[in-house]
Amino acid sequence: MGSQVVPQARRHRWRMLCILATCLLVAAAHAGIPLSGLSREVRAGDTPASVLEDYRHGGLVGFDPRRLQRFSQQGLGTWVVLQPQPPLVSEERVLSIYPPPLTPVTMYTAHAAPLTLSLDDFTAIAHGNGRLAYRLTEDTPASEPILLKFEPASARDFPVSFQLQTWNEYLERDAQWLVFASACFAVMLAMALMALCLAIMLRDSTYGWYAGYILCYALIQGIHTGYLYHPLGLTWLAGNAPLLGSSAVALSLAFAAMFMARFCELPRYAPLLHTPTLVLAVGMPLVVLLRSCQIPLLQQTAQVLIDPLLMIGTLLLLLAAIVAAVRGARPAWFFLVGWTPLLALTALSSSQVNGMLADVMWLSDAALAAGAFEAIVLSLGLADRALIMRHDHELVQELADNDALTNVLNRRAWTEAVCKVMASGAEQPVALLFLDLDHFKLLNDRQGHAAGDRALIAVADALRHELRPHDLLGRYGGEEFVAMLYGIEQGQAMQVATRLCRRVHRLDIPVTTDGLVLSASIGIAMRAANDSVESLVERADHAMYRAKLAGRNRARLDEKLDPSAPTVWPQVMEGDQGG
């Protein structure tokens, strides 16, 4: 009984915490001085006084300023009257419009000259970050209605909300937004710059397309939130927001298409969708060119095409990523994780423009956070892709360098490695061992090539375990092996070679049924000042033949190292069956 009460209490506490968090979010969204709002379209001959008179006689249509409101873009514009509600505050206040509209908005008060603000307004008047902000001095009566005039929009504009706060509340909120937005943009720009550096260093265009996409998205958000204007103060963008914004949207989709085609490996995992994706990537810049030209007909055509193409292109990229992910493209999952939240927010924002979700105030800020999140996820995806490519490259390199049968270095790779050691100019002694298996041809003839292959594998494994990890062991050809021993003297080299002979003999690989087993003859050469790899191998090879002539299953030094050596060397171990 008691065990059931504890989980119920926990669930109750979690439920209360969720309710409390929701209430705090709602309170934060609706914080400030209460407002009521009314609006009507601008008519010819209107004056601020006549509009306020209409307001007092009930000639305007009411709306909730705390909810997102989209005003008419036709005609001469829209009048908005905001009436402060109790409890009234007589100190300095700030009226903010969020998100900031693309069109100019003028505020009329009885105690100050009309004040017009817009995103690209760079006057000395205090301007909000991420919103339009109008200061109301203490001289303005707390109950006085606030009159605003929205100019007609030449392009589709987002719905806005209104908030009246005290000066201190506004400064706190403005600073919070500035820190949040700066962090999001910093993440996006850092990821894009890192990708550009990698694109140059690795000569991989995938990183370049990714950087272009992230930069375009940052540009879109910078225009939409006004960050490029305030606080960055990029005055040369004044008057170009609609054109620059639509161009950035089109180019971002083009860059996303090129990036996704390479990142998700569409030719391999979704070949049928690869060509439409490339067509989309080429078509969107053409729309931008049409939108930027000076021919009105072409501009209108591009404006009509851009929204359908964006919708079709977005669905195409989503479908291609899903297909590639389902078919095994690991990077496609990174693309979906990073891109899907952004796609959902874009759909919600589109719904807001059409008059839905008026209470959802956080979409604009969420789009910023989603951009930073996507930049991080896709950067992790690129890093994961780079690691996979590096692993594949190392695997291919290993397959190219290693002998397929014995898994030691092949002749080419061994020669290249020894050349690097000898070219390093180090003064350490270098010994080269040339090893040939005795009676190997007889083993192949009597037992077949499969038995010979097994013998080569066993010998290579024994040699590898007997030598040091940094010794270079390779298969020179057929039944011949070579080993370069770095940093050992002549006497030590002889000891190692003798040990190798014993190790091969103790494998007890039968050659014939009368007791003959596989053994090895080894020649040893020490590097001289004028030696090349070829000359060193040649001397070790000659020493190996001297070991063969001396009775096999033994090691012998190069003649230059031991000219007084006896004609017949003692055998390495008793019972040598060499012939």
UniProtKB/TrEMBL annotation:
Gene Ontology molecular function: any one: diguanylate cyclase activity
Organism field: Dyella halodurans
TM helices/strands, residue ranges: 177-202, 209-229, 241-260, 272-290, 302-326, 333-350, 362-383
Enzyme Commission code: 2.7.7.65
Lineage: Bacteria, Pseudomonadati, Pseudomonadota, Gammaproteobacteria, Lysobacterales
PROSITE patterns on file: GGDEF (PS50887)
SUPFAM superfamilies reported in the protein's UniProt record: Nucleotide cyclase (SSF55073)
CDD domains: GGDEF
Domain spans labelled GGDEF: 428-560
Protein name: diguanylate cyclase
The keyword Transmembrane helix belongs to this UniProt entry's keyword annotation: yes
Keywords linked to the UniProt accession: Membrane, Nucleotidyltransferase, Transferase, Transmembrane, Transmembrane helix
